[in-house]
Design brief:
Largest sheet: 6 strands, mixed
Radius of gyration: 23 Å
Order of helices and strands: EEEHEEHEHHHEHEHEEHEHEEHEH
Distance between the termini: 20 Å
Shape: globular
Strand content: 25-35%
Number of strands: 14
Length: about 300
């Protein structure tokens, strides 16, 4: 079966700045696929090329088999695109914004009422239908933006960091909506800098500086970490991270809030590490071995301490 989204050896530069280099990935029908990585990873450039806003320098990109350079109108008619800053009209009400985008996408008038009813149902925006968009909370604005993106029943949904700057509760609600859309058969490509959101995707591609470091199911990618991760907590511990990094055998030290994650190769026990740190700092610490997180794997990948996976 042909993938809904296909990217083969895609590269794009802006002057001397290489935004994406030799990117290849597929998104299957009905899949919720995540592009994961920090700012500058190449996520937005990839998305803007897929939705025909910029042209690739090289490579082949297609949506439902349509070439992004040759089938601009067709791709835009079947794709719902939500950029990082979706342009709602603040002086129009929730309902009026939906009407505007329905007209923009030439939704038949006889279908508008039913589509709005459905969108209100899963977004929980019906009680606010007459409120001006400019008076909505950040989370409600994002749900309205998504509703406007969905008004023409796209078969492919492409979202660029839709929850950046949104409170945790609204983020959770937004992802619940995406899961419902996935159940209805909508193919979704979403970018995010949040590793916890990556766990909600069927598959992910971890990107860094324009390249893909790993592609696969989240649990498969965490399985790339064969070294052992130990979490340690103690008094002023983060301030001692540079000293701890000098312990013989240690691979890396990373700060996570008020704790540290230490990476050691197999063969080191908790007691070995506790003893080494006590000899170094003269204090007892809480230490436990933990399963590697996507953050641990991402750091290992960009530092070259984990082999890239596919």
């Amino acid at each position: 079966m042909q993938p809904v989204i296909s990217i083969i050896n895609f590269s794009k530069s802006f002057g001397k700045n290489i935004a994406v280099k030799n990117l290849s990935l597929d998104v299957e029908k009905g899949e919720l696929f995540g592009l994961i990585g920090p700012d500058g990873a190449g996520k937005t450039t990839t998305i803007r090329t897929l939705v025909t806003l910029i042209s690739p320098d090289s490579g082949e990109l297609s949506v439902t088999g349509l070439n992004v350079s040759k089938s601009v109108r067709e791709i835009r008619s079947i794709t719902g695109y939500m950029p990082q800053r979706f342009s709602l009209y603040p002086d129009l009400s929730v309902s009026q914004n939906l009407n505007f985008f329905a007209n923009l996408f030439e939704v038949p008038k006889k279908e508008m009422a039913e589509r709005k009813k459905r969108l209100f149902k899963f977004s929980n925006l019906e009680p606010f239908s007459e409120r001006l968009a400019g008076q909505l909370s950040g989370g409600m604005k994002q749900k309205l933006a998504l509703s406007c993106t969905l008004i023409h029943n796209p078969v492919v949904l492409i979202l660029d960091e839709p929850t950046t700057g949104v409170d945790p509760v609204s983020r959770s609600e937004f992802w619940e909506i995406l899961q419902e859309l996935k159940k209805e058969g909508v193919t979704i490509l979403v970018s995010t800098p949040y590793m916890d959101e990556a766990l909600l995707c069927d598959r992910i591609a971890i990107m860094h500086e324009g390249s893909v470091l790993a592609i696969g199911k989240p649990e498969k990618i965490t399985g790339l970490m064969h070294n052992h991760i130990y979490k340690i907590t103690g008094h002023n511990l983060v301030l001692q991270s540079n000293r701890i990094a000098q312990i013989p055998g240690i691979i890396s030290v990373q700060s996570f809030g008020d704790s540290l994650h230490l990476t050691f190769p197999p063969g080191f026990s908790s007691e070995d590490i506790r003893s080494k740190i006590y000899d170094l700092l003269g204090q007892q610490l809480n230490i436990e071995r933990i399963a590697p997180s996507l953050e641990d794997v991402f750091i290992g990948l960009i530092e070259g301490k984990i082999g890239h996976g596919n």
